[in-house]
């Protein structure tokens, strides 16, 4: 079998592979063998193991009207994971702020910060994370995304100390100063994160095209803020590890099928891996899936280490947000463990 390895060769002078932080984006996948409750408990278990393996943080994302993802009530899932862990940072990657009043998000994440001090992150996205039907069901105006910058500043004010807060208090969020992140897949998010002096996370695990120019813009335009003195960039990357390249390649077909379904307009639960992905997708679905999954490393630990080191040298990111979308929970734990080992083992 051909191992998928689509990282571009290094094009920069970055060389911080041994210092780059590893974190996880947990998709909370509902599968043909695991219902929503099981998926949420699996996310908690993954967080428990990930902190033992040295991961910095684990995030979950807000999605609506998607039968295969169980993290719609994002703050509740964050609380469940945080309650089953001791030290790893837990957060939203992210909350789609146009779907919510900033005041309510401040209350939710301020409460989480009170329950789990120093461990909560709040990543913010501008996209709705859903379709027009769900947007109407949430009673949010279609133009809500136009207020994204102002909504961030409002949210930030509710998390600030009381002396800096407006007349209304978001109890118990006041003074928690939950760290905010800007999420994005375009130049817009990079520019906004730079202007506000916030850390920036690029969604290259599904929208890789603008990764390098967005990072360059963010770094060149960054303005120091109270939260952050220097630019700090994270990038998402799909990584599936197994004991052999062939096994990892087979495990990766689960994610490939999910993206083929997305391209084909099908809503299915996560599917078990198959032997021949070519028998599943159409040429159009294949082209779309491969474009969206272009930033992927799949293989045994040595392959993973080489791929991630190349990605780090190319991008100079301070942190990797690993997406390891594996169907079986035990196989996914094994993948996440091998990824950590690969980046910690200089002998590979």
Automatic annotation (TrEMBL):
NCBIfam families linked to this entry: oxido_grp_1 (TIGR03558)
SUPFAM superfamilies xref list: Bacterial luciferase-like
Start and end residues of each Luciferase-like domain: 28-319
One MF term in the entry's GO annotations: oxidoreductase activity, acting on paired donors, with incorporation or reduction of molecular oxygen
Residues spanning the signal sequence: none
Membership in a protein family: To bacterial alkanal monooxygenase alpha and beta chains.
Origin superkingdom: Bacteria
Species annotation: Pseudidiomarina maritima
Name listed for the protein in its UniProt record: Luciferase-like monooxygenase
GO cellular component, one term: cytosol
InterPro entries: Bact_Lucif_Oxidored (IPR050766), CmoO-like (IPR019949), Luciferase-like_dom (IPR011251), Luciferase-like_sf (IPR036661)
């Amino acid at each position: 079998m051909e191992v998928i390895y689509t990282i571009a060769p290094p094009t920069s002078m970055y060389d911080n592979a041994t210092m780059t932080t590893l974190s996880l984006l947990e998709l909370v996948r509902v599968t043909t063998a695991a219902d929503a409750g099981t998926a949420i408990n699996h996310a908690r278990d993954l967080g428990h193991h990930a902190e033992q393996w040295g991961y910095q943080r684990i995030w979950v994302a807000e999605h609506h009207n998607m039968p295969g993802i169980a993290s719609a009530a994002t703050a509740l899932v964050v609380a469940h994971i945080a309650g089953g862990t001791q030290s790893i940072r837990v957060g939203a990657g992210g909350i789609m702020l146009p779907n919510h009043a900033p005041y309510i998000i401040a209350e939710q994440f301020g409460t989480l910060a009170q329950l789990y001090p120093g461990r909560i992150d709040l990543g913010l996205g501008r996209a709705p994370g859903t379709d027009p039907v769900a947007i109407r069901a949430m009673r949010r105006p279609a133009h809500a995304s136009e207020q994204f910058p102002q909504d961030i500043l409002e949210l930030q004010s509710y998390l600030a100390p009381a002396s800096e807060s407006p007349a209304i208090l978001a109890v118990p969020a006041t003074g928690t100063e939950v760290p905010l992140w800007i999420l994005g897949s375009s130049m817009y998010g990079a520019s906004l994160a730079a202007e506000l002096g916030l850390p920036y996370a690029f969604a290259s695990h599904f929208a890789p095209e603008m990764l390098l120019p967005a990072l360059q813009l963010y770094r060149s335009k960054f303005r120091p803020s109270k939260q952050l003195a220097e630019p700090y960039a994270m990038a998402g990357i799909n990584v599936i590890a197994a004991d052999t390249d062939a096994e990892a390649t087979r495990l990766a077909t689960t994610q490939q099928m999910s993206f083929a379904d997305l391209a084909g307009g099908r809503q299915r639960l996560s599917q078990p891996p198959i032997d021949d992905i070519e028998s599943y997708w159409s040429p159009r679905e294949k082209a779309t899936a491969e474009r969206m999954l272009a930033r992927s490393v799949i293989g045994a630990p040595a392959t993973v280490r080489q791929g991630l080191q190349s990605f780090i040298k190319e991008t100079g990111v301070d942190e990797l947000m690993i997406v390891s979308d594996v169907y079986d929970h035990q196989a996914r734990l094994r993948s996440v463990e091998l990824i950590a080992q690969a980046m910690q083992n200089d002998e590979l």
